[in-house]
Design brief:
By secondary structure, this protein is α/β, with parallel strands linked by helices. The protein folds into four domains: 141 residues, Polyphosphate kinase N-terminal domain (Methane Monooxygenase Hydroxylase, Chain G, domain 1, Up-down Bundle), CATH 1.20.58; 171 residues, polyphosphate kinase like, CATH 3.30.1840; 170 residues, Endonuclease Chain A (Endonuclease, Chain A), CATH 3.30.870.10; 178 residues, Endonuclease, Chain A (2-Layer Sandwich), CATH 3.30.870.10. The chain is 36% helix and 21% strand. The strands form four sheets. Strands 14, 18, 19, 20, 21, 23, 24, 25, 26 and 27 form a ten-stranded mixed sheet that branches. Strand 8, helix 8 and strand 9 form a beta-alpha-beta unit. Helix 2 runs antiparallel to helix 3 and helix 11 runs parallel beside helix 12. The longest helix has 33 residues. It starts with a helix and ends in a 21-residue tail after the last helix.
């Protein structure tokens, strides 16, 4: 077989969806790690559930659409849509079984040992608790409920996506047959309700659906409730928008959001002991096949565990809350523009605070010398101070242009609200480009100074979201480089007026230039290796599934390039294939913070080049999104960024290594110095150094003692 065909052989690739399920398995592994505090373990179970919901609503839904459309083309790993759905079904069931066995057999007993009890069934209530539950139901729950029966005059009701419901069979005195009824568990009420505990100082909780089940007879007076069981459905939530035909994108997206509630049912979760007749009715009315039904041994939808994670008085069951540290080059409250003029500034979140980014826009909004602010927004927080500052800037008479990406999945409604608010304040709001999502993270401030106009730019790997900046690991750079300032202006002109620059100074932008740049950088290392020179690539990202990039990496590896990849989630590349990927190592880090930064290092014959940006190595990022890759040019900052990669490659506590069988395994730590990269960065950020010195100055890491 020709070399090129070997590199592109489907057997040498992992299916994207199955790789994602392995990632969610790594998240679940954190819940099974006995060295982690108990409530932290519960948090990871909750995250696993939330992840799986989105996976079904988008990825599984997309595959079902392909099947309905008769789409036959195979994926990167040679699998058809039907084959992928079959494999996903098998792997998901195994994941859910592990999830619930972890919850039932490990976490619940550990909670009980700490005098925290979650009632398994309402029959467990003692007399005092039962009295409390019934009174709570009458006062708080009953007025909110809407029981719905199914008969000749009442068709099957709309069951909303992701809502928890209770299905029941009821027997009216005048009827011969049992009839179907359903009631939605109201999402406006807390799902986890604390009730009196049998033990002094203990904490006892009941789930809202159990409280409703206990009192179902009060919803169907003069009827006998034969049985009642909770259930939940997942619908296709992938928006289908013809942007060429949409005269007003904002109105079209608002219309499509409503349609999400009517999408095809792709998953039905039921309690494992559900009555057969009840299940048969749900199957028929929801038009769902057996392979899409999941019988659950425990509470349906474990995302409620995130509420338990915040339980007061249980600080010893959680990690001590980390407080992001200040960026040494920026004194809080000082002129941020003066700080940037002294030299480029690197920020490493959440180890260092996101406040300077918020302050950058805030100071610009009130600075009389600032003429214009331009920014892209993909996902922002619910009460965003950045949005408030942009609105304030427009009200202060500054030229404010904001690209709000309305197609940011599951943030569409939030972004529509912000877009309208910004427009009302006088900002020029752009809704993105037809056929593309704008995923780049860039802010530009144009300021009038004594020596003329100066442009200040912030470039980042993560969203302008002050809330997630405390949870996601990301990098950002402030600069007033003239070359980058010119490029930033060109980016915004391209976004607002379709003006395509002939060339760029420093920035590399998708979808037109980024793929070529990455391939050129990889191929340069391949060429150097073939010439007998040292060649190395280190790349950190969220996902790797682009076939052309993977093929180039295989060619580089075969030529002798040493490649280290830090890929948090999906990885379609396989390691250890003889003659193809023996020089590639892949690790995934799953820890207390969500790994989100994208960093790319190329050895370049001893003159290393480092880039950061908003794009993963995925077709959507390289071909269907507006993304920005920016170079790290300051030598001191280069050292800091390389240090980030160095520590992550040394991580043997939270890293999983991909093996040649396509499985991820934890590193054998026996006799080794322990390195937890996230903890290490937390320690380093707290070390106080003079402002003019490098924050990671000449330090590698200060590891713990060997095991």
């Amino acid at each position: 077989m020709e070399k090129e065909k070997i590199f592109t052989n489907p057997e040498n690739y992992e299916n994207r969806e199955l790789s994602w399920l392995k990632f969610n398995g790594r998240v679940l592994n954190e819940a099974r790690d006995k060295s982690i505090p108990l409530l932290e373990r519960l948090k990871f179970v909750s995250i696993t559930s939330s992840n799986l919901d989105e996976f079904f609503m988008v990825r599984v839904a997309s595959l079902k659409d392909m099947v309905h459309a008769g789409y036959k083309k195979k994926d990167i790993a040679g699998m058809s849509a039907i084959e992928q759905l079959e494999a996903i079904n098998k792997d998901t069931r195994a994941l859910v079984d592990t999830q619930y066995s972890t919850y039932n057999r490990s976490l619940l007993p550990l909670l009980k040992a700490r005098d925290v009890k979650i009632i398994d069934a309402f029959e467990e209530l003692n007399a005092t608790q039962a009295e409390f539950v019934d009174a709570y139901f009458e006062e708080n729950v009953y007025p909110v409920l809407t029981p719905m029966a199914l008969d000749a005059s009442r068709p099957f009701p709309l069951i909303r996506n992701k809502t928890l419901n209770i299905a029941a069979l009821i027997k009216r005195k005048s009827a011969e047959e049992n009839e179907f009824a359903t009631v939605q568990v109201p999402s406006v009420l807390p799902r986890l309700i604390e009730i009196p505990s049998e033990k002094e100082g203990g904490r006892t909780f009941i789930l809202l659906e159990q409280m409703i089940e206990r009192n179902m007879d009060k919803l169907f007076l003069n009827c006998k409730v034969v049985c009642a069981y909770p259930y939940r459905i997942m619908r296709n939530a992938d928006l289908s928008i013809d942007e060429d035909e949409a005269a007003d994108l904002l109105k079209e997206i608002q219309k499509q959001l409503k349609m999400r509630q009517w999408g095809e049912v792709i998953r039905l979760e039921v309690e494992d002991k559900i009555d057969k007749k009840l299940l048969a009715i749900l199957k028929e009315e929801l038009h769902i096949a057996d392979e899409a039904i999941y019988r659950i041994n425990g509470p349906i939808d474990l995302t409620f565990l995130m509420k338990l994670y915040g339980l007061e008085g249980c600080d010893d069951l959680r990690y001590k809350k980390y407080i992001p540290q200040r960026v040494p080059q920026i004194e809080p409250g000082e002129d941020i523009f003066a700080a940037i003029r002294k030299g480029d500034i690197l920020m490493h979140h959440p180890y260092q605070t996101f406040d300077p980014v918020v302050d950058f826009i805030r100071q610009a909004s009130i600075d009389p010398d600032v003429l214009a602010i331009k920014q892209t927004l993909y996902r922002v927080s619910g009460n965003s101070p950045i949005i408030a500052s942009l609105a304030q800037a427009a009200e202060n008479g500054k030229q404010v242009s904001v690209l709000v990406e309305l197609k940011a999945r599951f943030d569409e409604e939030n972004n529509i609200v912000w877009a309208k608010k910004l427009e009302q304040a006088g900002c020029h709001v752009i809704y993105g480009l037809v056929g593309l999502k704008t995923h780049s993270k860039i802010s530009l401030v144009v300021r009038r100074e004594e020596d003329g106009i100066r442009r200040y730019v912030h470039l980042g790997t993560g969203n302008y979201n002050d809330s997630t900046a405390k949870l996601y690991t990301d990098c950002g750079i402030f600069t007033c480089s003239e070359a980058i300032g010119e490029d930033a202006t060109a980016v915004f002109n391209m976004l607002s007026g379709y003006s395509e620059p002939l060339s760029w100074n420093r920035l590399i932008v998708a979808p037109l230039w980024l793929r070529k740049k990455f391939l050129k950088l990889i191929n340069r290392e391949t060429k150097n290796a073939k010439e007998g020179k040292e060649a190395k690539i280190i790349a950190k990202m969220n996902s790797l599934c682009d076939k052309e990039i993977i093929t180039a990496l295989y060619e580089a590896s075969a030529a002798g390039v040493q490649i280290d990849l830090v890929v948090r989630g999906i990885c379609c590349l396989r390691v250890g294939i003889p003659g193809i990927s023996e020089n590639i190592r892949v690790r995934s880090i799953v820890g207390n913070f969500l790994e989100h930064s994208r960093i790319f290092y190329f050895y370049n014959g001893g003159q290393p080049e480092i880039f950061m940006g908003s794009a993963d190595w995925m077709p959507r990022n390289l071909d269907r999104r507006v993304e920005i890759l920016f170079p790290v040019e300051d030598e001191e900052i280069k050292k800091k960024v390389y240090h980030i990669l160095e520590v992550e490659l040394a991580d043997n506590m939270k890293a999983h290594l991909l093996n040649k069988n396509g499985e991820y395994e934890k590193i054998d730590k026996r006799g080794k110095v322990l390195v937890n990269s996230q903890e290490q960065f937390c320690k380093e950020a707290k070390i106080k150094v003079p402002k003019e010195q490098n924050i990671y100055q000449e330090r590698i890491f200060v590891p713990a003692e060997p095991v």
